[in-house]
């Protein structure tokens, strides 16, 4: 009985992680308020990139994980999801 319950819990956790990816880890990310405010000033909503004068910069997934201090992001999964959306 106990083993069956634990197997079901593990299956549910695997399914949740497969469907939601790294979302649970992002909920625990501590964001540096000052860096966020500084970056928000340069974020261009229309183009989804940072604009510094005449230069547009689009962060990579690796750069986002560094900015967010989130090391548990599955980079290969993020790229494959973006490709699947298109």
Account of the 3D structure:
It is a single chain. The protein is mostly helical. It has one domain. About 60% of the residues lie in helices and about 10% in strands. The protein has 5 helices and 3 strands. The protein has a 3-stranded antiparallel sheet with strand order 1-2-3. It is elongated.
Annotation keywords:
86 residues; mainly alpha; 3-stranded antiparallel sheet; 10% strand; disordered C terminus; DUF7745
Q: What does the radius of gyration come to?
A: 18 Å
Largest sheet: 3 strands, antiparallel
Query: Residue-averaged pLDDT, rounded?
Result: 73
Q: Which ranges are low-confidence, i.e. pLDDT below 50, for 5 or more consecutive residues?
A: 79-86
Q: Sum up the overall morphology in one term.
A: elongated
Q: How many strands appear in the DSSP assignment?
A: 3
> What is the percent of helical residues?
55-70%
Oligomer: single chain
The proportion of strand residues reads 5-15%
Sheet with the most strands: spatial strand order: 1-2-3
**Could you say which structural class the secondary elements and strand pairing correspond to?**
mainly alpha
User: What is the N-to-C succession of helices and strands?
Assistant: HHHEEEHH
Q: How many domain regions?
A: 1
Tally of helical runs? 5
Q: Distance N terminus to C terminus?
A: 44 Å
